[in-house]
Amino acid sequence: MTQNLQWRGAVILVVLIAGVFLIYPSIGPVPEVWSKYLPASPIRLGLDLQGGLHMVLEVQTEKAVETVVDQTMAEVSALMKEPDVKIRYTDVERVSPSSFKVILKDAAQEVLFDSMVLDKIPNFRKLSGEPVSEGYAITVGMDQKAIDETKRQSVRQAVDTIRNRVDDLGVAEPDVVLHGEDRIIVQLPGLREDTNRAIDIIKRTARLEFKLVDEKGDLNAALKGQIPPGDEILYQLDRNPRTGAVTRTPYLLKKQVLMTGDVLTDARPRTGQDARWVVAIEFNRRGAQLFDRITGDHVRERLAIILDNRVYSAPVINERIGGGRAEISGRFTPEEASDLALILRHGSLPAPVQILETRSVGPSLGADSIKLGRNAVVLGLVLVMIFMAIYYKWSGVVADIALILNLLLIFAVMVAPGLRATLTLPGLAGVALTMGMAVDANVVIFERIREELRAGKSPRAALEVGYARAFSVIFDSNLTTLLAALPLIQFGTGPIKGFAVTLCVGLLVSLFTALFVTRFIFDYVFENMRVRRMSI
What we know:
Blueprint: H1 2-23, H2 32-37, E1 44-45, H3 47-50, E2 52-59, H4 61-81, E3 89-96, E4 99-104, H5 110-116, E5 124-132, E6 135-142, H6 144-167, E7 175-179, E8 183-189, H7 195-203, E9 208-212, H8 219-223, E10 231-239, E11 246-254, E12 259-260, E13 264-271, E14 277-283, H9 285-297, E15 303-307, E16 310-313, E17 325-332, H10 334-345, E18 353-361, H11 363-415, E19 422-423, H12 425-454, H13 459-491, H14 494-529
Helix pairs in contact: 1-11, 1-14, 4-6, 11-12, 11-14, 12-13, 12-14, 13-14
């Protein structure tokens, strides 16, 4: 029995020391030596406790489908121009968000189109074919399964892209989670300054495109509404750093996208040859080959670099550019160049996002929440401890000791490496609820012991039977509550998830303190003090 007590006491001592070490950084300043060798991370506070930025975004998934259709249209145009195909056609135009029309010169081209083009564009099928005044029109549409998968993938990719962007903002422990089918909740705890910059970085689509300038077209006529087929007008915006005035320079561009930012591997801000800030970009292997071919095929033509339908620069291609590197210039400030590089580095959003809600929580509100939540937990703890000590006498004091340890271990587990849970205001409510459940376990045990004492058993025998019979009841009740709370962690967000996390942690800790710690104290007292009467 003595050896059994020793190893149980050693376990409790180790757990207690570990809990103190984990929780100490949240209480006082941590020495430099401590941070080198021991865990030094304080408890993560949620948005409602320390303030920050809360956003609800909606992904425009229809735009993702349109993008796939546009890219497929460009691919179809390129396939029909290949030397071994040479399909004669008039135009390729989109007729709906998920379909487009190819106008062939005559119906005789349909068989060639089916075999040489249609088979090479997966997830698309021919919807119809009919004679028109310009020739023969074939309508091609995207499969419904492919549409649904594109929408789902666009939301998942948007979550990853936004998470990567906010990670580079330097915000401690940002939270980016999917909510529903097409909504994303973004929480940036501690962010109280530069919120507009953060919002701009998060919501920007950052679709990078390379298009040719149509220098043979009449820009003036296009500005009056006479835009040539296959062309569009986009603008370059230049802001005067002294006056703040914005100059809009129009460009007549060919609609065909020669290259997109999907082939980027890196983007970094730096100063160019004229001491102005530029963004240096690098392509992957496929992008380097594509850029090499584009610049080689269009020497002495102007290539426009476009981001979100805004022209940043349109330099003349003087020679073939190999090596997989390029620059984006546009009279950037250092911050603008840094933000643009950050966005490009983590990729474009697959579809635009719409901001449904933006809420900024001030630090004073968070401080008040912490104060009120702390007072509520302390008051609840004191009331429960007083009741237990009065109603169950010295046995109640044992339960109070376990309750204090329970509270310490809850916060220690939440700050432990590997879990790093976030404490929210509903999480404090979960802590208060857990304390009640932890005491409830001791109440079940004590009432069982009382029944055995009334039946005439000795204190030692009553203790053994009381714990043995109460174990299954306590374990089953905690397990069922735990199973009910786990889905809230998996699928819940914000306050719901914060409550569920502390509840689950508290349930597991209360099993340890109620069944292991209190039993050790009773066994130690019976072993060393020869108790004849139990104060319960």
